[in-house]
From TrEMBL:
It holds the Pfam family CFAP58_CC. It comes from Strombidinopsis acuminata. Residues 2-100 form the Cilia- and flagella-associated protein 58 central coiled coil domain. Keywords: Coiled coil. This is Cilia- and flagella-associated protein 58 central coiled coil domain-containing protein. Residues 1-56 form a coiled coil. GO terms for cellular component: cytoskeleton. The lineage of its organism: Eukaryota, Sar, Alveolata, Ciliophora, Intramacronucleata. The keyword Transport does not apply.
């Protein structure tokens, strides 16, 4: 009977230890489940943050492409304006040369006119002199 009593006591201790182990493991399971829930919440938060950052990156990439296209257009416009400016400068230079040539021609024409007027005045004097000389000849 005593041996049965000891066995029974021993079995109760083993059962108590097993029960304590089960309770401890249950607590550990609850802690692990709580940790898993926290990690899952953190994972979802990080996923949302990742999606937001990815979306922002995509928007910035699109904006960068658009800005690069605008910049390329501006460079093209600058190139066209520089070309137009060079053509305008060349035409302006040509016009200045034309004006200079026309001024020289005008000056030459004025000089020719002056010489012609002088010669015309001399012609009148010469005609008068010829007339007087012919008269003198006729009188002789």
């Amino acid at each position: 009977k005593e041996k049965t009593q000891e066995n029974l006591e021993k079995q109760r201790r083993l059962q108590k230890k097993a029960q304590e182990a089960v309770e401890e493991q249950g607590q550990q399971i609850q802690k692990l489940e709580a940790t898993i829930r926290e990690i899952e919440v953190e994972r979802q938060t990080q996923r949302k943050e990742f999606e937001a950052v990815t979306s922002e990156r995509n928007i910035l990439g699109t904006q960068l492409i658009r800005r690069n296209e605008e910049l390329a257009l501006l460079y093209e416009k600058i190139k066209i304006q520089e070309s137009t400016l060079k053509k305008g400068e060349a035409q302006y230079k040509n016009r200045q040369e034309d004006i200079r040539g026309q001024k020289e021609a005008s000056g030459q024409l004025k000089l020719d006119l002056f010489v012609a007027q002088q010669q015309a005045e001399n012609t009148d004097d010469l005609k008068k002199e010829v007339y007087h000389l012919q008269r003198e000849l006729l009188q002789e």
